[in-house]
């Protein structure tokens, strides 16, 4: 056909198109509250979904709300190698303490990988790319995460964020579940209000992992109840690890009994990926491990004595001196960088 001359056919060409929708208020005073912006973001996501597009960002700035979006190609029904995944998030920022930093999941380079790195890789693999920053520092209490990490995270303007805190507070005499949950809620609201998808999770029962932690079980139960309540109010998404016994399987925890091992971090990342709706992930992370062989009494005693000597006593000595494992440490990935996929 003459009208098709000079036009290449037989292949597909995908363009990265962006459009910006700007709502300008009629009045000069502030009109959009955080609740308005959160609801508008939900509406815009739904509208973009109806038109086969993906909402890239949603920011309320004084008297306007800006919502850039990107058209996404429809699934042609071909093989996975020929399908183009939807770009949902551009920048992921993780804030928290040692578990978010990655202890105890060695990266074979002298540092730690952890569930946040693994989750970032899963998102990047799904979308074809992602910027990722990890601001977490071991030993940080919820109050310090709020004071030190949240302002940096807000400046980085993520559209995906994990907020995990509370374990270091549980271990301290000044524990206050309502205050901790209130601080977590403040972080969640600030990030959700800026347009981010925010994920958080409850703490597993520590007793199966650390029998000496039985006096702390009540604190964990109170904190988890408070986290469930505030997360339901802020618009963040809660992953309830406490509801799944496998989260307290000692085989998913490191020798120090405070941090997950590599298998545990892998399972946490899989749970987050499933919660985030990434393809290829399901609820298999909730399934229990095979029944462990019963240990003899002398084996249990030897293990307990070794743990006390290597981990408990040094931890007690450090805290009696007012020291923290996070003293003089900085975040391992303070600047958002593209996730490298192997």
UniProtKB/TrEMBL annotation:
CDD domains reported in the protein's UniProt record: SGNH_hydrolase_like_1
Q: InterPro entries from the xrefs?
A: GDSL_Rv0518-like, SGNH_hydro, SGNH_hydro_sf, Transposase_17, Transposase_17_sf
Give an example GO biological process.
DNA transposition
Q: Which residues form the Transposase IS200-like domain?
A: 13-63
Task: Provide the species name.
Answer: Micromonospora palomenae
Q: What is this protein called?
A: Lysophospholipase L1-like esterase
Which Pfam families does the UniProt entry name for this protein?
Answer: Lipase_GDSL_2, Y1_Tnp
Q: Which residues form the SGNH hydrolase-type esterase domain?
A: 94-267
A Gene Ontology molecular function term of the record: DNA binding
């Amino acid at each position: 056909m003459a009208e098709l001359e000079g036009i290449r056919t037989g292949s597909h060409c995908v363009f990265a198109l962006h459009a910006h929708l700007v709502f300008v208020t009629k009045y000069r005073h502030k009109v959009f509250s955080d609740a308005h912006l959160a609801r508008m973001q939900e509406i815009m996501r739904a509208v973009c979904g109806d038109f086969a597009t993906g909402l890239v960002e949603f920011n309320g700035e004084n008297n306007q709300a800006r919502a850039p979006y990107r058209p996404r190609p429809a699934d042609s029904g071909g093989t996975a190698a020929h399908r183009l995944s939807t770009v949902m998030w551009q920048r992921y920022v993780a804030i928290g303490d040692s578990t978010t930093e990655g202890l105890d999941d060695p990266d074979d380079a002298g540092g730690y990988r952890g569930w946040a790195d693994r989750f970032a890789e899963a998102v990047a693999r799904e979308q074809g790319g992602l910027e990722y920053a990890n601001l977490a520092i071991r030993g940080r209490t919820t109050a310090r995460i709020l004071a030190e990490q949240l302002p940096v995270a807000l400046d980085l303007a993520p559209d995906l964020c994990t907020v995990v805190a509370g374990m270091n507070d549980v271990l301290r005499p000044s524990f206050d579940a309502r205050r901790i949950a209130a601080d977590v809620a403040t972080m969640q609201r600030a990030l959700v209000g800026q347009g981010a998808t925010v994920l958080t999770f409850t703490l597993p029962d520590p007793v199966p992992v650390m029998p000496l932690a039985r006096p702390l079980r009540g604190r964990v139960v109170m904190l988890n109840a408070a986290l469930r309540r505030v997360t339901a109010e802020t618009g963040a998404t809660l992953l309830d690890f406490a509801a799944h016994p496998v989260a307290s399987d000692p085989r998913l925890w490191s020798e120090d009994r405070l941090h997950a091992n590599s298998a545990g971090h892998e399972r946490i990342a899989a749970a987050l990926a499933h919660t985030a709706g990434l393809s290829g992930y399901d609820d298999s992370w909730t399934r229990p491990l095979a029944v462990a062989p019963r240990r003899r009494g002398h084996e249990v005693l030897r293990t307990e004595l070794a743990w006390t000597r290597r981990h408990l006593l040094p931890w007690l000595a450090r805290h009696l001196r007012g020291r923290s494992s996070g003293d003089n440490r900085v975040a391992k990935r303070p600047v958002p960088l593209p996730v490298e996929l192997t």
